[in-house]
Amino acid sequence: MAKYIKKEMADMRQSGVKQVCYRLKSNGTVGLDELARECARGTTFAEGEVKGVVMTLVEGMVRNMTRGFSVHIDGLGTLTPKIGLREDAESEVLDGEGAKRNARSLHVTGVSFRADKELVKKLDLRCKLEKGSVSRIRKSKYTEEQRLEKAKAFLREHTVMRLGDYYRLVGLSRTAASLELRKWERDVATGITSEGSYSAKVYVLRKN
Fold it and tell me: Is residue 95 part of a domain?
């Protein structure tokens, strides 16, 4: 039996209507050892044989994706590699100005997965749901103007501010704090901008 969580969403349109979404509550992750043990049960295959087949399949998938192919497995889905610029590479523009990119500027950033319809259908038929908890958005006791001033005061004292610093400072959820900081860095008038990217991203006071 799987439990679902009802989660309150941020009101980005300022409509005053509380929107909710639903997600499955995670019970952890099933690893290859446990999965192989379960699959081998009731068959003539040994657990090690199942693991060996899976690892051979993974190697075959990687080999074909490095050659530019997507990999489709009936009943599972389609996997396609994604590429992007390395963190230290500048974006290239199409009008010929700016930095020129070559293969060394690019790398694999992930793998997109599109589930097979049969997999989704099987999950829907077999998954029995029961109600879990309700997740509500943390509300800050400060107005947006007050939060901006608190952020600036923090930066004047500490020079840099990370996302974790900000949401603990003002009492917002991680998602709401991230959205607000990104909105501020796009607005020159706030006096806040960012440096770095991904996990190394920090917020700083904008230089005049």
Answer: yes
